């Protein structure tokens, strides 16, 4: 990543770099549209395929957290809301809105570079759905989230990639 300035010693990204990276990710997704499991093409703003996959997962996380937050807020407002169902719908809705992104991540799920992000997503799903105790052991929360994510994925409507 090209740093344009620093904040507390950490490199930060300027708007031009942000747009270059966004456009590079869009180009990767367009390239993989018909073969989501194909090799990740090089992108000049990323060091390697692992960095591209991490950026794609970050994009997914950003897209998913809003709907999950809304699902949680709905449940907080209405105690009769089935939180597991609300989280499942939020995931499906997000996956349906970004089918190529979801298909690429699913196809590359076993890539070691994605493991920390996938596990963080699993924990997020378990915690938002109230299926795990936030003070519980990290491995247990991850295990519960992995089971929930597998259930969500196995019951998801087939994603249409146009």
Model description:
The chain has 162 residues and is mostly helical. It is 64% helix and 4% strand. It is built from six helices and two strands. It has a two-stranded antiparallel sheet with strand order 1-2. A hairpin with a 2-residue loop joins strand 1 (5-7) and strand 2.
Large-scale geometry: globular
Instruction: Please outline the major beta sheet.
Output: 2 strands, antiparallel
Instruction: Count the DSSP helices.
Output: 6
Arrangement of strands in the largest sheet: 1-2
- Give average pLDDT, whole number: 91
Given the helix and strand composition, which structural class is it? mainly alpha
Unreliable residue runs = none
Strand content: under 5%
Task: Give the radius of gyration.
Answer: 17 Å
Described by its quaternary structure, the protein is single chain
């Amino acid at each position: 990543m090209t740093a344009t300035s620093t904040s507390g010693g950490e490199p930060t990204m300027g708007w031009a770099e942000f747009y270059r990276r966004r456009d590079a990710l869009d180009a990767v997704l367009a390239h993989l549209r018909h073969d989501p499991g194909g090799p990740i093409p090089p992108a000049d703003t990323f060091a390697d395929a692992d960095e591209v996959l991490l950026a794609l997962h970050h994009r997914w996380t950003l897209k998913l957290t809003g709907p999950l937050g809304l699902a949680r807020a709905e449940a907080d407002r209405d105690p009769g809301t089935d939180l597991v169902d609300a989280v499942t719908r939020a995931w499906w809705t997000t996956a349906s809105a970004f089918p190529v992104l979801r298909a690429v991540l699913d196809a590359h799920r076993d890539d070691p570079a994605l493991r920390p992000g996938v596990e963080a997503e699993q924990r997020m799903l378990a915690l938002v759905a109230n299926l795990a105790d936030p003070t519980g052991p990290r491995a247990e929360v991850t295990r519960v989230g992995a089971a929930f994510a597998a259930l969500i994925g196995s019951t998801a409507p087939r994603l249409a990639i146009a």
